[in-house]
């Protein structure tokens, strides 16, 4: 392992090192840049090599060290290799943000193909498991913070017909968060889940919509505007601010907790 290269500058995360999956865009990118701005060295993982290179350059503008690894989080071999890159470059890890995921296939249960179901499970749930599993050796000596991006879908909201695979993974992530929080408490590793509502990201690009969805839709007429607080979707930067709090020492007694960040959207949809 390389000598620790953590900066000693100012910021809420000064002296810390963070690994973030799904870091090339959306919530992952916003968290990477905010963490770097707050003084953390960062390891960025994503399948998008070009996007990673751009975010790396943006993060390094804050004067921190940045490692990148093109990583399919559903592959244990790829995750192991990515952690090696991160530790070789940063010297340690304090914060793990398991953020990567896909919407996957949006289809009636009767017509959903097993391969589409399995792809969503493999990336969203198996990927989260592998990210957390391989974080433990790096965190267990001194403790740390693990964050998992779940969703209001599968936890508070069940009205998005066709999202059975996605919602199942998001519900499972919350259960896994709570199991991991208790198991890892003896190592002073905190584990918390973030459940965003509608956020302005490009995750819809990973959505496959079945032409048969209309056959199983249940008509619902919401009051004008279905996102009460800000009359529209939240931003990746707002979620990153929550991740900053949960990753920092400001939340040192919070673990096993699910935090909803949706502007009251789920209270209306639920």
UniProtKB/TrEMBL annotation:
Gene source species: Paenibacillus algorifonticola
Record's keyword terms, sorted: Oxidoreductase
InterPro entries per record: NAD(P)-bd_dom_sf, SDR_fam
Protein name: NAD(P)-dependent dehydrogenase, short-chain alcohol dehydrogenase family
GO aspect biological process, one term: bile acid metabolic process
Pfam families, per the entry: adh_short_C2
Molecular-function annotations in GO: oxidoreductase activity
Family per record: Belongs to the short-chain dehydrogenases/reductases (SDR) family.
Taxonomic placement: Bacteria, Bacillati, Bacillota, Bacilli, Bacillales
């Amino acid at each position: 392992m390389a000598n620790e290269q953590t900066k000693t500058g100012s910021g809420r995360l000064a002296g810390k090192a963070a690994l973030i999956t799904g870091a090339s865009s959306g919530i992952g990118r916003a968290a990477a840049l905010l963490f770097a701005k707050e003084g953390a060295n960062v390891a960025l993982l994503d399948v998008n090599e070009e996007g990673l290179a751009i975010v790396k350059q943006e993060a390094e503008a804050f004067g921190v060290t940045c490692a990148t690894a093109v990583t399919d989080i559903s592959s244990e071999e790829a995750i192991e290799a990515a952690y090696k890159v991160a530790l070789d470059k940063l010297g340690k890890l304090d914060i793990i943000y398991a953020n990567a995921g896909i919407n996957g296939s949006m289809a009636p249960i009767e017509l959903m193909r097993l391969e589409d179901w399995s792809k969503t499970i493999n990336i969203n749930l198996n990927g989260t498991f592998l990210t957390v599993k391989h974080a433990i050796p790096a965190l267990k000596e001194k403790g740390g913070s693990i964050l998992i991006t779940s969703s209001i879908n599968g936890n508070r909201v069940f009205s998005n017909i066709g999202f059975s695979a996605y919602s199942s993974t998001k519900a499972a992530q919350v259960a896994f968060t709570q199991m991991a929080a208790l198991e890892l408490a003896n190592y002073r590793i905190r584990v918390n889940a973030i459940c965003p509502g509608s956020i302005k990201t490009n995750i819809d690009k990973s959505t496959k919509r079945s032409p048969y969805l209309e056959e199983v839709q249940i008509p619902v007429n919401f009051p004008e505007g279905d996102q009460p607080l800000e009359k529209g979707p939240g931003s990746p930067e707002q979620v990153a601010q929550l991740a900053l709090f949960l990753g920092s020492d400001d939340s040192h007694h919070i673990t096993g907790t699910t935090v909803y960040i949706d502007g009251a959207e789920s209270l209306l949809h639920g």
